[in-house]
Each structure stands twice: as structure tokens, then as C-alpha cells.
Design brief:
It comes from Pedobacter jamesrossensis. This is VOC family protein. The protein is of the alpha/beta class. It has helices spanning 2-23, 43-54, 104-113; strands at 35-40, 58-59, 68-72, 78-83, 96-100, 129-130, 136-141, 147-151. The chain has a 4-stranded mixed β-sheet with strand order 1-4-3-2, covered by helices on one side. A 4-stranded mixed β-sheet has the order 5-8-7-6, with no helix packed on it.
């Protein structure tokens, strides 16, 4: 009888551990971003642009078909450029990729050295937007017309 009581007490004592383990069950974990795919007309032009403007490191791409470039976005995931868009489309500024940089001023100098124009959210050329939280942001387009935001989010 004592052994049975000890057994029951152990089961009761372990019950909170089972609840904690259930809370960390992988099926209950939130989804995480794996990659962003951008459809482009000229893969080499788009690859050179993202590599040189954002200093993104290329990572091995598994397809080896000449239609893809993969970049690492660090812990955020990957950026995949995919060749095949037939025409450059007009994209709304509300649909954009956003990158953060340590210094928006240094990044603006880099854009100017590459003759890449940029604008504020309102569309004023060569200006940045100062958000109410103090973050500076600019907007510009990649070679296929996809909008990009760069900010100095701190």
C-alpha cells in the first residue's frame, strides 16, 4: 500500500512538468518566416543589385537551374530571386521589403554613389521620412520596380 501511495504522489508531482512540456510542444510554436520570393525579369541584374546595394551574402541554391539566386537574411530567413517575370509591373509602395541599416545617412550616400534615387513615404525625391518614433526611412525601387524600404530602426 505504501508503494502504491508513493507511486500516486510521484504521478501527482510530475503533473506540472507534463503541463510545461505540453506548452513547449512544437505543434504549438508560432510559424517563422522561411523565405521571401521575388519574381524578376533579369536574374543577373537583380542579383547584382541586391548583392551590391544590401551586401547580402549568397547561399547555395539547391535547384542549380540558372533561374534562382538565394541570399541569406540572417535569422529572418532567405531572399529568393526567381527569373521568369515577363514584364516589369507597377507595384504599390504599400507592398515592400524593408531592410534596417545602422546608419541611414551612410546608406543614402551609397545609393547616391550608385545613382539610385530614393524618396520619402510622401514621394518627395531625395528626402527621408521621420516617423513619430524617431526612425528615419527611405523608399526606392529595385530594377523590376519592387518597392524597398530602408530604415535606421534602432
Amino acid at each position: 500500500m505504501r508503494t502504491f501511495l508513493k507511486f500516486i504522489l510521484i504521478i501527482i508531482a510530475l503533473n506540472p512538468i507534463q503541463k510545461i512540456m505540453a506548452q513547449t510542444d512544437k505543434s504549438q510554436m508560432p510559424a517563422v518566416l522561411n523565405h521571401i520570393a521575388v519574381y524578376v525579369t533579369e536574374l543577373k541584374i537583380a542579383t547584382d543589385f541586391y548583392e551590391s546595394v544590401f551586401n547580402l551574402p549568397q547561399i547555395p541554391e539547391p535547384f542549380h537551374d540558372g533561374r534562382h539566386t538565394w541570399f541569406s537574411l540572417g535569422s529572418a530567413g532567405h531572399l529568393h530571386l526567381i527569373q521568369g517575370a515577363k514584364t516589369k509591373e507597377i507595384h504599390d509602395k504599400n507592398e515592400h521589403l524593408c531592410f534596417s541599416v545602422p546608419s541611414i545617412e551612410a546608406f543614402i550616400s551609397k545609393l547616391k554613389s550608385k545613382n539610385i534615387g530614393f524618396e520619402s513615404w510622401a514621394g518627395t525625391q531625395g528626402e527621408f521620412t521621420l516617423r513619430v518614433d524617431g526612425v528615419k526611412q527611405i523608399y526606392f525601387k529595385d530594377p523590376d520596380g519592387h518597392w524597398l524600404e530602408v530604415n535606421d530602426d534602432k
